Amino acid sequence: MGLVTGNLVQNYNFPGPYPLRFGTKFRIIIETVKGRRLLIFSLLLDPMEPSSQSRDSSIRRELTNHLAQFVSDHKREFIERVLRNRTRYVTVVLEDIYQSQNASAVLRTAECLGLQDIYIVETRSSWSTNKQVLKGANKWIQVLRYRRRQTNNIGQCIADLKQKGYRVGITDPDPDGVSIDAVPLDQPLAIIMGNEKHGVSLGAKQEADIKIHIPMTGFTESLNISVSAAISLYSVLSRVRASDLPWQLKQDEVEELRVQWYKKVIRNAELIEKEFMRAIQ
Fold first, then answer.
1. For a disulfide at 67, which of 57, 179, 262, 279, Cβ 3.0-4.6 Å?
2. 105 or 47, which is more confident
């Protein structure tokens, strides 16, 4: 009887209770029965073996430790401070912003105040950036874009946000909404900011959970979108961080961002990572 073991090199649709994925261990038993050589396929499904997710986490931690030696103490401390203050509890949605300096200013403000995710809806206007205003802020945050043609992009974005547990609010200058200082924070909050000329769309108004306004006492009663974003985010985040709400990132999110950010500050990070992965295989 012969025995061969190895790992699957591709997904395989095998009938039975176990989905076979890339990397699954297997063995082929070669046995001679009545003069015929039979191949018996068997999976090595050891219940004590770590899950794929657990192995990925372990490799990620090893890679992070390896990369850390190429990052200065100052930068590592800086990254840890930013990670401690990063949040997905609050996010911003920019709907059809057509002036690049406005969109870039909001992204820069959001990153400075600790937001990790920004949602961009592009139904009538395409999103563009102004590098001089942006100052590289998009390097450190996740931008999720909704821009499919003939699609209710704002409706899809709001649906996704609600599925993630967000209360969705729209900004509107009318005073019949809730003041930004009084917005309930018992669940994560997504703030939609609309087009510079027309404001938020009708679809956003219909699907939102709450209307938010910034109290103003002057004649103009109109703020630039980047200023509105700064005031709104600072007000909300100050209250969130002073509370007992679970606003900080989860541990696995922290670990994922840490390794991503290490690679962004290391020269030739891709080559270093490839050599490391080759060494542990």
1. 262
2. 105
